[in-house]
Amino acid sequence: MMEGCDVARQEHALVRRALMGVAALALTLSGMGCNVLSKLGPANCDRSIDANPPIPYTEGTVEAGVYMSATWDLDAPKAAQELLYFPGGMRYEIAHHLGEVPRWWTAYLSFDRYGSDTESLAIAAGNQVEVRDVDDTVITLVNATCSEYWLLLVAGGADTTPPDDLPDEE
User: How far does CA 98 lie from the centroid of its chain?
Assistant: First the structure.
């Protein structure tokens, strides 16, 4: 009978030592910080400019002083509705064709290539879309997250002069 108790005590002591070892390892790793922990797990996306040089984009349209990188007109050809692929770290230099610095811009994101067709567009927030530069020819954007999106850029306010051929009001 005593032999059974001794075996049970030895097993209990081994389990206790193993649990204390796991707890000590967890405390040690948690004190090392996120950088060390991320090296133990899967690699994060590389968002550096070296790994993600800006990609020029010259498509899109301007109507009534508003630039759109794609249309949300569902009657337009499917190619005109396609949003820009925007994975983590991606940078775009988007030629806005406005002729001067835009006064405003809005970035919309979707998880779908044809976000307006699937009604899954939302305004970007936080570091989903960061503006790195705006001038009279391009807007430079970066996806500063590690998430994958599809991008629609809308910018305008540069041309606020109404066309000369508008009818007079009476």
Answer: 25
Can you give the residue range of the structural domain that contains 88?
55-156
Q: Which tens digit of pLDDT belongs to each residue from 84-104?
A: 999 999 999 999 999 999 999
Does the pTM exceed 0.70?
A: no
Instruction: Find all residues with CB under 8 Å of 103, minimum gap 6, and list them.
Output: 156, 157, 158
| Phi, psi of 125, rounded to the nearest 5 degrees | -140, 155
- CA distances, 35 to each of 19, 40, 50 (Å): 25, 9, 20
Domain membership of residue 48 (yes or no) is no
Q: Which amino acid is at 83?
A: L
Instruction: For residue 40, give every residue at least 6 positions away whose Cβ sits within 8 Å of its Cβ, in sequence order, or none.
Output: 29
C-beta atoms surrounding 10 within 10 Å? 10
Task: Judge if 70 and 96 occupy the same domain.
Answer: yes
